[in-house]
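Give me C-alpha coordinates for this 256-residue protein.
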Amino acid sequence: MKRLLFICLAIIGLSSCEENDPVGELGAVNKQAPSIYLSPFQPVAKAGEMTTTEVSYWIKGERVYNGLHLWWKVDTEEAYELKISSISYSFKTSVFAEKTAYEILSSYEYDFSDWDPESKTYRKEVGIDVPLSFKTYTQRPSQVATADFISVVPAEVETAMYEHLAVSATSANHKKLLVEVLAVATEEEVMQTFNEDGILTAEGKTWLINKYTTIGISTLIDSYNYGKKHSITSKFEGISSFGVSNFSEESNINVI
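Here you go.
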Protein backbone atom coordinates (compact mmCIF):
# COMPACT_ATOMS: atom_id res chain seq x y z
CA MET A 1 0.00 0.00 0.00
CA LYS A 2 2.84 2.38 0.90
CA ARG A 3 4.56 1.55 -2.38
CA LEU A 4 1.40 2.37 -4.33
CA LEU A 5 1.03 5.69 -2.49
CA PHE A 6 4.68 6.60 -3.28
CA ILE A 7 4.18 5.91 -6.98
CA CYS A 8 1.06 8.10 -7.08
CA LEU A 9 2.87 10.97 -5.36
CA ALA A 10 5.76 10.68 -7.79
CA ILE A 11 3.40 10.87 -10.77
CA ILE A 12 1.68 13.94 -9.31
CA GLY A 13 5.04 15.62 -8.71
CA LEU A 14 6.21 14.91 -12.24
CA SER A 15 2.98 16.29 -13.66
CA SER A 16 3.38 19.48 -11.61
CA CYS A 17 6.90 20.05 -12.92
CA GLU A 18 5.71 19.71 -16.49
CA GLU A 19 2.94 22.27 -15.98
CA ASN A 20 5.05 24.85 -14.13
CA ASP A 21 8.60 25.06 -15.43
CA PRO A 22 9.83 28.62 -14.78
CA VAL A 23 13.29 27.91 -16.20
CA GLY A 24 11.84 26.52 -19.42
CA GLU A 25 9.42 29.43 -19.72
CA LEU A 26 12.25 31.93 -19.26
CA GLY A 27 14.21 30.22 -22.02
CA ALA A 28 11.22 30.44 -24.35
CA VAL A 29 10.85 34.17 -23.65
CA ASN A 30 14.56 34.86 -24.17
CA LYS A 31 14.57 33.14 -27.55
CA GLN A 32 11.84 35.23 -29.10
CA ALA A 33 12.58 37.56 -32.01
CA PRO A 34 13.27 41.24 -31.31
CA SER A 35 10.64 43.80 -32.22
CA ILE A 36 11.97 46.44 -34.63
CA TYR A 37 10.40 49.71 -35.77
CA LEU A 38 12.24 51.87 -38.30
CA SER A 39 10.72 55.33 -38.59
CA PRO A 40 10.43 55.98 -42.34
CA PHE A 41 13.18 58.06 -43.89
CA GLN A 42 12.11 61.24 -45.66
CA PRO A 43 10.73 60.05 -49.02
CA VAL A 44 13.11 62.30 -50.98
CA ALA A 45 16.84 62.73 -50.35
CA LYS A 46 19.55 64.70 -52.11
CA ALA A 47 22.56 62.93 -53.55
CA GLY A 48 25.73 63.77 -51.65
CA GLU A 49 23.89 64.42 -48.38
CA MET A 50 23.12 62.43 -45.25
CA THR A 51 19.54 61.46 -44.45
CA THR A 52 18.70 60.21 -40.97
CA THR A 53 15.89 58.64 -39.01
CA GLU A 54 15.36 56.73 -35.76
CA VAL A 55 15.01 53.03 -35.06
CA SER A 56 13.33 51.56 -31.98
CA TYR A 57 13.96 47.98 -30.89
CA TRP A 58 13.00 45.89 -27.90
CA ILE A 59 12.61 42.33 -26.70
CA LYS A 60 10.80 40.84 -23.71
CA GLY A 61 13.03 39.43 -21.01
CA GLU A 62 16.34 40.22 -22.71
CA ARG A 63 18.64 43.24 -22.90
CA VAL A 64 21.57 42.01 -24.96
CA TYR A 65 21.84 42.06 -28.76
CA ASN A 66 24.36 40.28 -30.96
CA GLY A 67 23.77 42.41 -34.03
CA LEU A 68 22.13 45.67 -35.13
CA HIS A 69 22.32 46.30 -38.86
CA LEU A 70 20.91 48.79 -41.36
CA TRP A 71 20.39 47.11 -44.73
CA TRP A 72 19.83 48.75 -48.10
CA LYS A 73 19.26 47.94 -51.75
CA VAL A 74 19.48 50.33 -54.68
CA ASP A 75 17.35 50.38 -57.83
CA THR A 76 17.59 52.49 -60.95
CA GLU A 77 15.02 53.82 -63.39
CA GLU A 78 16.09 54.90 -66.87
CA ALA A 79 13.48 56.93 -68.74
CA TYR A 80 13.59 57.07 -72.53
CA GLU A 81 11.70 59.33 -74.92
CA LEU A 82 12.31 58.68 -78.62
CA LYS A 83 10.98 61.13 -81.20
CA ILE A 84 10.18 61.19 -84.92
CA SER A 85 9.59 64.86 -85.69
CA SER A 86 8.22 64.38 -89.23
CA ILE A 87 5.03 62.79 -87.84
CA SER A 88 5.15 64.39 -84.36
CA TYR A 89 5.65 60.94 -82.82
CA SER A 90 6.96 60.34 -79.31
CA PHE A 91 7.54 57.03 -77.52
CA LYS A 92 8.13 57.01 -73.77
CA THR A 93 9.15 54.06 -71.63
CA SER A 94 11.20 53.26 -68.52
CA VAL A 95 13.63 50.46 -67.74
CA PHE A 96 13.93 49.40 -64.10
CA ALA A 97 16.95 47.51 -62.77
CA GLU A 98 18.42 46.42 -59.45
CA LYS A 99 21.75 48.19 -59.01
CA THR A 100 22.58 46.63 -55.65
CA ALA A 101 20.86 43.68 -53.97
CA TYR A 102 20.12 43.88 -50.24
CA GLU A 103 23.33 44.16 -48.23
CA ILE A 104 24.39 45.53 -44.84
CA LEU A 105 25.11 49.24 -45.13
CA SER A 106 25.95 49.99 -41.47
CA SER A 107 26.35 48.02 -38.25
CA TYR A 108 25.78 49.44 -34.79
CA GLU A 109 26.98 48.43 -31.34
CA TYR A 110 24.44 47.56 -28.68
CA ASP A 111 24.45 50.38 -26.12
CA PHE A 112 22.41 50.21 -22.93
CA SER A 113 22.34 54.03 -22.84
CA ASP A 114 19.99 53.89 -25.84
CA TRP A 115 17.27 52.62 -23.50
CA ASP A 116 14.29 54.98 -23.28
CA PRO A 117 12.33 54.28 -20.08
CA GLU A 118 9.32 56.25 -21.28
CA SER A 119 8.75 54.16 -24.42
CA LYS A 120 10.43 51.08 -22.91
CA THR A 121 12.46 50.61 -26.08
CA TYR A 122 16.02 51.13 -27.24
CA ARG A 123 16.16 54.13 -29.58
CA LYS A 124 19.02 54.94 -31.93
CA GLU A 125 19.60 57.40 -34.75
CA VAL A 126 20.62 55.78 -38.03
CA GLY A 127 21.51 57.35 -41.34
CA ILE A 128 22.35 56.85 -44.99
CA ASP A 129 25.08 58.89 -46.66
CA VAL A 130 23.60 59.10 -50.15
CA PRO A 131 26.36 58.84 -52.79
CA LEU A 132 26.77 61.87 -55.04
CA SER A 133 26.79 59.50 -58.02
CA PHE A 134 23.09 58.79 -57.34
CA LYS A 135 22.14 62.30 -58.45
CA THR A 136 19.28 62.36 -60.96
CA TYR A 137 20.72 62.70 -64.45
CA THR A 138 19.12 64.05 -67.63
CA GLN A 139 20.48 64.07 -71.15
CA ARG A 140 19.49 65.89 -74.34
CA PRO A 141 20.75 65.95 -77.96
CA SER A 142 22.61 69.17 -77.14
CA GLN A 143 24.75 67.14 -74.72
CA VAL A 144 25.13 63.86 -76.62
CA ALA A 145 24.42 63.55 -80.34
CA THR A 146 21.29 61.58 -81.19
CA ALA A 147 23.26 59.06 -83.25
CA ASP A 148 25.63 58.38 -80.34
CA PHE A 149 22.75 58.02 -77.90
CA ILE A 150 20.78 55.66 -80.13
CA SER A 151 23.77 53.32 -80.33
CA VAL A 152 23.36 52.48 -76.63
CA VAL A 153 19.56 52.24 -76.45
CA PRO A 154 18.65 48.81 -74.98
CA ALA A 155 17.22 46.26 -77.40
CA GLU A 156 14.01 45.91 -75.36
CA VAL A 157 13.35 49.66 -75.69
CA GLU A 158 13.94 49.53 -79.42
CA THR A 159 11.61 46.53 -79.86
CA ALA A 160 8.89 48.13 -77.74
CA MET A 161 9.07 51.30 -79.82
CA TYR A 162 8.53 49.45 -83.10
CA GLU A 163 5.35 47.84 -81.79
CA HIS A 164 4.10 51.10 -80.27
CA LEU A 165 4.74 52.98 -83.51
CA ALA A 166 2.94 50.31 -85.53
CA VAL A 167 -0.24 50.38 -83.43
CA SER A 168 -0.38 54.05 -82.37
CA ALA A 169 0.37 55.95 -85.57
CA THR A 170 -2.49 56.70 -87.96
CA SER A 171 -2.58 55.33 -91.49
CA ALA A 172 -1.84 58.85 -92.71
CA ASN A 173 1.28 59.05 -90.54
CA HIS A 174 2.48 55.60 -91.60
CA LYS A 175 2.01 56.67 -95.21
CA LYS A 176 3.86 59.96 -94.67
CA LEU A 177 6.79 58.31 -92.90
CA LEU A 178 7.22 55.20 -95.04
CA VAL A 179 6.20 56.53 -98.46
CA GLU A 180 7.02 60.25 -98.45
CA VAL A 181 9.85 60.74 -95.93
CA LEU A 182 11.78 57.46 -96.11
CA ALA A 183 10.56 56.16 -99.49
CA VAL A 184 10.78 52.52 -98.38
CA ALA A 185 7.22 51.41 -99.23
CA THR A 186 4.40 52.12 -101.63
CA GLU A 187 1.14 53.75 -100.66
CA GLU A 188 -0.71 50.54 -101.55
CA GLU A 189 1.48 48.48 -99.19
CA VAL A 190 0.83 50.85 -96.31
CA MET A 191 -2.91 51.17 -96.87
CA GLN A 192 -3.31 47.37 -97.03
CA THR A 193 -2.33 47.19 -93.37
CA PHE A 194 -5.73 48.68 -92.45
CA ASN A 195 -9.19 47.27 -93.19
CA GLU A 196 -12.11 49.12 -94.79
CA ASP A 197 -13.06 50.61 -91.41
CA GLY A 198 -9.58 52.08 -90.97
CA ILE A 199 -8.59 49.55 -88.28
CA LEU A 200 -5.11 48.04 -88.24
CA THR A 201 -5.27 44.31 -88.99
CA ALA A 202 -3.17 41.64 -87.27
CA GLU A 203 -1.29 41.00 -90.51
CA GLY A 204 -0.86 44.73 -91.00
CA LYS A 205 0.60 45.12 -87.51
CA THR A 206 3.13 42.38 -88.18
CA TRP A 207 4.08 43.93 -91.53
CA LEU A 208 4.61 47.38 -89.99
CA ILE A 209 6.67 46.04 -87.07
CA ASN A 210 8.90 44.09 -89.45
CA LYS A 211 9.25 47.13 -91.72
CA TYR A 212 10.26 49.46 -88.88
CA THR A 213 12.62 46.84 -87.44
CA THR A 214 14.35 46.59 -90.81
CA ILE A 215 14.66 50.37 -91.04
CA GLY A 216 16.06 50.66 -87.49
CA ILE A 217 15.94 53.46 -84.93
CA SER A 218 19.13 55.05 -86.24
CA THR A 219 17.10 56.06 -89.31
CA LEU A 220 13.74 56.61 -87.64
CA ILE A 221 14.67 58.67 -84.57
CA ASP A 222 15.86 62.26 -84.90
CA SER A 223 15.57 63.46 -81.28
CA TYR A 224 15.32 62.11 -77.74
CA ASN A 225 15.19 62.76 -74.02
CA TYR A 226 16.84 60.56 -71.40
CA GLY A 227 16.89 60.48 -67.63
CA LYS A 228 18.25 58.22 -64.91
CA LYS A 229 17.39 58.21 -61.23
CA HIS A 230 18.07 56.07 -58.17
CA SER A 231 15.88 54.84 -55.34
CA ILE A 232 16.93 53.31 -52.03
CA THR A 233 15.02 50.74 -50.00
CA SER A 234 16.18 50.14 -46.43
CA LYS A 235 15.30 47.97 -43.45
CA PHE A 236 16.76 47.44 -39.98
CA GLU A 237 17.75 44.11 -38.46
CA GLY A 238 18.06 43.19 -34.80
CA ILE A 239 19.66 39.92 -33.67
CA SER A 240 19.15 38.72 -30.09
CA SER A 241 21.87 37.16 -27.95
CA PHE A 242 20.32 33.79 -28.84
CA GLY A 243 20.84 34.51 -32.55
CA VAL A 244 17.17 35.14 -33.31
CA SER A 245 16.80 37.78 -36.03
CA ASN A 246 13.99 40.09 -37.08
CA PHE A 247 13.62 42.93 -39.59
CA SER A 248 11.65 46.16 -39.60
CA GLU A 249 9.29 47.20 -42.36
CA GLU A 250 11.01 48.68 -45.42
CA SER A 251 11.50 52.41 -45.96
CA ASN A 252 11.78 53.89 -49.46
CA ILE A 253 13.78 56.92 -50.60
CA ASN A 254 13.81 58.63 -54.00
CA VAL A 255 17.12 60.33 -54.71
CA ILE A 256 17.34 63.66 -56.52
